[in-house]
């Protein structure tokens, strides 16, 4: 998507949807956005596995939703888990031993509304007992905004559970990790210094841009207020900030 001579790409930590699903969402908003211009953390997980030549005979256990499964399928990786494990329960009785697939070579953890103890134990067994098994997090967001009434526990809470049981730090592929930034810079043949990261969250969007060596623009139409930005407790300062994206349109009109 090109606007005023600038290419726009969309980067999100939400792993519940695939790029194709996001494309359909943009269509409902009247925007024509190519899948190649959408970088969701679900895609980032699959892209990372491709970048390290993850063996195709190994499997990926997913603690997360449909978006991760679809992107893994598109990349040609075998997977198990996901929403289908949401109803599974463990009957804790004397002598109970939980089996797990020894061919799992990576556990991918993202936001999961169907999170349960079965998934925690299964992912833990894979990471602790399968030699070389990777622990990959789509993001570590503390909170998310499922409704406009309050903040809800984010993907970081699911990641934290697995971190707590395995004592192993995850490899994070979503914001503010630089993996997606490096990926898109290489894909479009540009340097990160040519990119301006626009977002409404300081600890993900703005930090993502800063970690990647980009200019950053904070919009105050989302989760960050002026008070939060100017708070003495906030150490993340964007290069620029404005009230909302539409301010660009008024700026253009003023220069005509």
TrEMBL record:
Domain of life: Eukaryota
One Pfam family linked to the record: Hydrolase_like
EC number: 3.1.3.18
GO cellular component, as recorded: cytoplasm
Molecular function via GO: phosphoglycolate phosphatase activity
Keyword Hydrolase: yes
Keyword line: Hydrolase
Reactions catalysed: 2-phosphoglycolate + H2O = glycolate + phosphate
UniProt keyword Hydrolase present: yes
InterPro entries (alphabetical): HAD-SF_hydro_IIA, PGP_euk
PANTHER family: 4-NITROPHENYLPHOSPHATASE-RELATED (PTHR19288), HALOACID DEHALOGENASE-LIKE HYDROLASE DOMAIN-CONTAINING PROTEIN 2 (PTHR19288:SF46)
UniProt similarity note: Belongs to the HAD-like hydrolase superfamily. CbbY/CbbZ/Gph/YieH family.
Protein name as it appears in the record: Phosphoglycolate phosphatase
């Amino acid at each position: 998507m090109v606007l005023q001579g600038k290419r726009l790409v969309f980067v999100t930590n939400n792993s519940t949807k695939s790029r194709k699903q996001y494309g359909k969402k943009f269509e409902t908003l009247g925007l024509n956005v190519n899948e190649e211009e959408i970088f969701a953390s679900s895609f980032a997980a699959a892209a990372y596995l491709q970048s390290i030549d993850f063996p195709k005979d190994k499997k990926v256990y997913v603690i997360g939703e449909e978006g991760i499964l679809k992107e893994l399928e598109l990349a040609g990786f075998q997977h198990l888990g996901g929403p289908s494990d949401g109803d599974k329960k463990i009957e804790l009785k004397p002598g109970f031993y939980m089996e797990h697939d020894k061919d799992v070579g990576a556990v991918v953890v993202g936001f999961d509304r169907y999170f349960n103890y079965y998934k925690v134990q299964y992912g833990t067994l894979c990471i602790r007992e399968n030699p070389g098994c990777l622990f990959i997090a789509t993001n570590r967001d503390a909170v998310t905004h499922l409704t406009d009434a309050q903040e809800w526990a984010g993907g970081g809470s699911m990641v934290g559970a697995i971190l707590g049981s395995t004592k192993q730090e995850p490899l994070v592929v979503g914001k503010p990790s630089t993996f997606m930034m490096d990926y898109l810079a290489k894909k479009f043949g540009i340097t990160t210094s040519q990119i301006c990261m626009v977002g409404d969250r300081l600890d993900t969007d703005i930090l993502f841009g800063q970690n990647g060596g980009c200019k950053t623009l904070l919009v105050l139409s989302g989760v960050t207020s002026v008070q939060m930005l100017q708070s003495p407790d906030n150490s993340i300062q964007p290069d620029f900030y404005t009230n909302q994206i539409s301010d660009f349109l008024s700026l253009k009109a003023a220069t005509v």
